[in-house]
Write a structure and sequence with these properties.
The chain is an alpha+beta fold. Helix content is about 40%, strand content about 20%.
Length: about 575
C-alpha cells in the first residue's frame, strides 16, 4: 500500500487507527513527521525541526482534540535535532497531556543538553535542543506501566529471540484492541528505535546509517547497526509489514526496503573501523572537498574533451560506421549530463550557506556516481587509462577520508628514480597501440580495425611536443610514497606546467635532510597560475598525509619532498 502525503488515511492492518504523513524534501535539517489518531490517544512521530511543519502538526492535533480530548504521545525514533527539535513546540490547548516517549539514552542526551549526541553540533547556527522533558524512557531500567494517570494508554514490554540475539520490544496501547509496537534498533544512534503500526514500519534513519557521509557521527555503532538490520529482516519475515516509512524521503514497499538494507550490509563491510565524524573532521572534510572538486572538475573536463574529440575524429573517417558499433555502448548525453551536474554542484558548493555535513554528504553522492562511471566498461579503451586512474584514486581518497580510514595509496614505499623513469617512458610511448604489432587479419577486419583506431585516438599523448630531461641522483631514492601517489601528483604538475606553454621540462632528484626531493624546472619561466590555489593545496595536502610537502619557487618551478624510507 502506498502512503499519501497530507491526507488522513487508514493504517493498513488496523481497524480504528488513521495516519497523516508529512513528507518533506530530504535533508539533514528536518525529518518527515507522522500523526496517528485513535480513540485513546494521538501519536506524533518525529515532529522534526521545521517551524512550518510544527504549525501544521499543531493544527492537525488541535482539530482532533476539539473532537475528543486525549493524551498526545510524541514518540521520537531517536534524539537527533532534525527529528526532535520541535517536540516541545507544538501549540496545543493548555490542559493537553503531552507525553514524550524516547529511548533512555536519548532521553538522557536531551535532558543534559548533549550537543554531540543530539546532532546539534553539526549545524552552523546555534540550534536549540528539545525542551520537552521525557515522560517515558523506552528500553531503560525504569518500570513499565500506565503512561497517563487515567490508565488510558498502557506501556508494556517483552523480549523476542532472533538469530541476531535478543530483540527488545515495547508497546503503547492506543485503543482497547490496538497498539503500536516499538523495537530497539541502535546503530545510527544508541537511541534509535523502529515503530510498527499495523502493516506500517517507521524506521527513522536506520536506512541511511551506513551512508559514508553519516557513518561515524557521534553515537554511530557499526556492530549494533548490523545486528539491528538482521533483526529488522527477521521482523519482515515474522510479522505482516507491507510498507516502510523512513525519516527522510518517501515510503517504500517492504521488499524494496529489504533489498536496500541488504545492500547497506554489503556496502558497509569496510566501515567497521570508521573514525568519529567530529565537527573538526567535518570542517576539514569540507575544505578538502573543495580542493577535490576543483581537481576532479579539471580531470573530468579533460575526459569529456577527449570523448568529444574522439567522436569528432571518428565521424570524419571512412570507418565511422564500423566505429559506431564500438561506441554504441557509450551514452555521450548521459556522461555530459553527469559532468554538468558535477560542475553545478561545485559552483553551488562555493556559494551556499548550509551545514558543512550537507556538503560532505552531497560530495559522497557525487563522487560515488563518478566512481561508478569510471568503474564501468563503457569507457574502456576510450580515454587515457592514466587519466581515468588519477580521477578514480582522487575520488577514492576523498571517500576514505570521509570514513576516517587510511587514504588510498598513502602507505608503502617506492623508488623515486624508477617511478620517474617509468612515467617518462609512458609519456614517450605516446600511444598504447602500434599498428605494426597488430596481426594483418585484425587490420583487415573492419570492426577490429575500428577498435584499434579508437584506442589510438583515445590515447594520444597530451605531452607529445614536450621535451624532458631527467637528472637522477646516484644515491638510493626509496621514499615513503606509493608509485601511484607520486605518479598522479607528478603527472598533474607536468600537465599544468605544459598547459601554460612550457615545452622543455627538467626533472632532478636529490637528497636533503632525510628527504628525497624531486625538482621540476625549465629554462623557461614556470608559473603556478594555471593550477589555482585549491589544486596546489590538494597536492600539498595529499603529500602531507605521508609527511611530504609541495613547494613552489616563483618562476623556477616546483619541489616535491618525501621522507626517505627507513632501512630494514
Amino acid at each position: 500500500m502506498s502512503i499519501e502525503s497530507n491526507v488522513w488515511q487508514s493504517v493498513p492492518g488496523m481497524s480504528t487507527v488513521e495516519i497523516y504523513a508529512i513528507v518533506t524534501r530530504p535533508s539533514i535539517t528536518s525529518s518527515n513527521g507522522y500523526v496517528l489518531r485513535s480513540s485513546h490517544a494521538i501519536v506524533v512521530i518525529d515532529p522534526g525541526a521545521s517551524t512550518h511543519q510544527t504549525q501544521l502538526l499543531s493544527e492537525l492535533v488541535r482539530a482532533e482534540l476539539a473532537v475528543k480530548s486525549r493524551p498526545v504521545l510524541v514518540v521520537l525514533s531517536h534524539c537527533h535535532q532534525d527529528h526532535s527539535q520541535e517536540a516541545g513546540n507544538l501549540s496545543l490547548p493548555p490542559d493537553t497531556e503531552v507525553i514524550l516517549c524516547i529511548e533512555g539514552t536519548g532521553a538522557d542526551a536531551l535532558v543534559r543538553g548533549d550537543r554531540e549526541l543530539t546532532f546539534c553540533c553539526y549545524y552552523p547556527w546555534h540550534a536549540k535542543i528539545c525542551s520537552l522533558r521525557p515522560s517515558v524512557r523506552l528500553f531503560s531500567d525504569e518500570p513499565v506501566g500506565a503512561v497517563d494517570a487515567a490508565g488510558r494508554v498502557i506501556h508494556g514490554a517483552d523480549t523476542l529471540e532472533t538469530p541476531g540475539g535478543r530483540f527488545a520490544r515495547e508497546w503503547l496501547q492506543l485503543s482497547d484492541t490496538e497498539r503500536i509496537e516499538l523495537y530497539h534498533t541502535p546503530g545510527h544512534s544508541d537511541c534509535s528505535i523502529t515503530i510498527k503500526a499495523g502493516e506500517l514500519l517507521f524506521l527513522g534513519d536506520v536506512p541511511f546509517a551506513a551512508n559514508p557521509g553519516l557513518c561515524g557521527i557521534y553515537g554511530w555503532n557499526h556492530v549494533e547497526l548490523m545486528r539491528s538490520i538482521q533483526n529488522l529482516e527477521w521482523l519482515f519475515d515474522h510479522s505482516n509489514v507491507s510498507t516502510c516509512l523512513p525519516g527522510h524521503g518517501f515510503a517504500q514497499p517492504t521488499d524494496m526496503m529489504r533489498g536496500n538494507l541488504r545492500a547497506m550490509v554489503e556496502e558497509s563491510a569496510g566501515l567497521s573501523n570508521t573514525g568519529t565524524l567530529s565537527t573538526e573532521r567535518v570542517t576539514s572534510l569540507k575544505l578538502h572537498l573543495g580542493e577535490v572538486l576543483e581537481e576532479a572538475s579539471y580531470l573530468f573536463t579533460v575526459i569529456s574533451g577527449q570523448l568529444y574529440s574522439l567522436s569528432f575524429h571518428l565521424a570524419e573517417l571512412e570507418e565511422a560506421a564500423a566505429c559506431q558499433e564500438v561506441l554504441a555502448a557509450l551514452d555521450f548525453d548521459k556522461v555530459e549530463q553527469l559532468l554538468m551536474d558535477f560542475r553545478r554542484f561545485a559552483r553551488d558548493f562555493k556559494a551556499a550557506e548550509t551545514p558543512d555535513l550537507t556538503f560532505v554528504m552531497k560530495g559522497v553522492q557525487v563522487t560515488s556516481r563518478l566512481l561508478k562511471l569510471l568503474g564501468g566498461s563503457s569507457l574502456d579503451g576510450l580515454i587515457d587509462v592514466s587519466l581515468s586512474g588519477r580521477a578514480r584514486r582522487l575520488l577514492e581518497d576523498f571517500l576514505a577520508m570521509v570514513r576516517g580510514l587510511q587514504f588510498a595509496g598513502a602507505d608503502g614505499s617506492g623508488e623515486i628514480n624508477t617511478i620517474v623513469r617509468s612515467l617518462l617512458a609512458r609519456i614517450a610511448a605516446g600511444r598504447a597501440d602500434d599498428l605494426d604489432s597488430v596481426p594483418d587479419e585484425e587490420i583487415e577486419d573492419p570492426v577490429s580495425f575500428a577498435r584499434i583506431l579508437v584506442r589510438r585516438l583515445a590515447n594520444r599523448s597530451l605531452l607529445e611536443s614536450v621535451r624532458f630531461d631527467f637528472e637522477p641522483t646516484d644515491a638510493a631514492t626509496t621514499a615513503m610514497v606509493s608509485e601511484e601517489r607520486l605518479d598522479d601528483t607528478l603527472l598533474c604538475l607536468i600537465e599544468g606546467v605544459a598547459g601554460s606553454g612550457v615545452r622543455h621540462i627538467r626533472l632532478q632528484t636529490l637528497l636533503r635532510e632525510r628527504m628525497v626531493v624531486l625538482r621540476l624546472s625549465s629554462p623557461q619561466a614556470i608559473s603556478d597560475q594555471g593550477f589555482g590555489p585549491r589544486r596546489l593545496a590538494l597536492y600539498n595536502r595529499t603529500l602531507s598525509w605521508i609527511g611530504g610537502e609541495l613547494t613552489y619557487q616563483p618562476g623556477q618551478g616546483f619541489e616535491v619532498s618525501i621522507p626517505m624510507a627507513c632501512a630494514t
